[in-house]
Design a protein that fits this description.
The structure holds two protein chains of two kinds. Chain A is α+β, with helices and mostly antiparallel strands. Chain A contains ten helices and 15 strands. Chain A has helices at residues 10-23, 29-44, 50-74, 282-290, 294-306, 310-325, 330-343, 350-363, 367-380, 387-404; strands at residues 79-81, 105-107, 115-117, 129-131, 138-143, 146-150, 155-158, 164-175, 184-188, 191-195, 198-205, 208-215, 218-222, 225-229, 234-238. Chain A has a 15-stranded mixed beta sheet that branches. Chain A is globular, with a radius of gyration of 26 Å. Chain B is mainly alpha-helical. In chain B, helix 3 crosses helix 4 and helix 5 packs across helix 8. The longest helix of chain B is centred in the middle third of the chain and has 31 residues, at 93-123. The relative contact order of chain B is 0.11. Classes of the chains: A alpha+beta, B mainly alpha. The interface between A and B is large, with 67 and 75 residues.
Amino acid sequence: MKWLDSPQDEAERLIREGLDGAAQRTGDEITHRRVWAKVAEEMDSPRPRIVGRFLLVGSALVLVFAAGALAYSYLPRHAEVATAPAPAAPPSASQPTTPIEAKPVVAESQNKAIDEVPISEAERAPGHVVRTRVGERARVGLGGGAVADLDENSAITWDSQHRPSVERGTAHLSVPHQPPGWRFSVTAGPYVVTVVGTKFDVRLANHTVEVDVSEGIVEVWRGSHSTRLAAGDSWHGPLNPEDPQPRVAPAPLAFEEKKGEPAQSTFDKGESKLEPHASHGVQEAQAALRAGDTQRALDILTRAAQGSGPAAENAAYALGHMMRYNLDHPRQAVALWDKYRTRFPSGLLRIEADLSIVETLAQVGDARAALSEADAFVARYPNSERRLDVQRLAERLRASQAASNPR
Amino acid sequence: MGASNHLKANMVQKQFTKTPSPVPAAIADAELVRSCRAGEMTAWRSLYDRYAPLVHRFSAALGIPVEEREDATQDIFIAVYRSLRHFRGEAQLSTWIYRIAARHAIRLGRRRRSRELMRATILREKPQPTVDPSERSTHLATLDRLLGKLAPKKRTVLVLFEIEGLSAKEISDVVGCPENTVWSRLHHARAEMVKTARRMVP
């Protein structure tokens, strides 16, 4: 058939232009580097061998049966299923929820031991509530191996999208590592906390939502804005974002304040501000660069880097990249990458920043600084795919230093 | 001449100059695969650098939304890493990666559609597509709308032919169907696309 061969045809022009644009949609380099950091991390953690996997599955099955038998014999005496009306929907669920009759499950134990509250898949429905009274604690299975330990006087429900939602009090959550492509989400007020596998606490108190991470990495989302928290980080935000800032003591900053500069935290620790998607800023800057407006591209990146979260991290790294490769200011690039790693010492692009600094210093002829950076790189990343290259570079630098100082 | 082989006709413009890859681009895929199988991380990085833009572009054209694209690319490369030992070298490496990416995109699409269907049925809530700020240009948005109207199988064939520049033989290897079926799906996909585009033009 004839296909896109009439230059005057408006419909064909639409398709032609779209196909041209789609061929160029290859993603930006910063995104590729971020993804590589995650892929390399996954490659470093080997999967269990086949036999090991069978053993693992077998023991998991035995454990599941044992837990089921235990729950069957133990729980009916300790948990009571009431038929009180459904409580109000969580603040995040702005959509009308299905009028499912709620069955609040109240753990009766008066001691501090945690009661297992059995929740079937069908019961994890909007409106279903599990709550603890004063002096009670309960363990609630959330599906996918995730478990929530409710403190006394707390409640957890399921929102309109079938996500668990902390409604009151404190929930200590433990989420096993999720298979590729799967993420576990729990909501609290207007926020969605997303994780791949971790342990963290979600608390609702004094019109504030608080998240404390004990293991792994979690992301807190509100709409399209997010912040990322690592182990040891705390975050808080107003339950109603229109309210003025809640009076909560600020969480400790993870990194020491630099002399003469305001304290800056990695990934919004202790802040309620959420940042846009990680690729924002960098893509806008790329568009400005494409249009030949270098100054605007720099302004966009500088502004994005001043924020926090993944978007700021990417922008902070991209600033150095742009300075080095687009504007040809290697010294300034090194300074910007150095600033990046001070702000994001555990950032996804940290290894790229370290590598870029080594290469750039060697290229501008600062052998001493390059050598020191190269040695630090080899010590820091013994398993990196670039370790051998950096080692070779360090040997060359040492040889040239020895040749210039023959003593 | 039609509009096929857009990739070859339009060289991708590099906005952020790429730093040199640890392995020269001249190394053939077969050698790269051998090095990867030997566990050389440098080779893995090189393979990633070589195919990440392809996977990203292909995922975008198959309708993986921008917020899922990074995770999808990650999952596809992890799948490549885990199954490279099964790659027999009968097809090109790129064809094999396309196959993995296409399967993953279809799986994600199915999951997304069932999620949306559930929301639409239970909550009477319309799905809200998210748009990447860099993709707000009219022609890309229009193309995504046009591609979105096609059935997944037709869409995959059209994308592989028109955007990725594969031959019918290569596409038949990727999607696992006879060449004649590829031509037939392409013919119908093009016709449907033009028909929809005509309805969109005032």
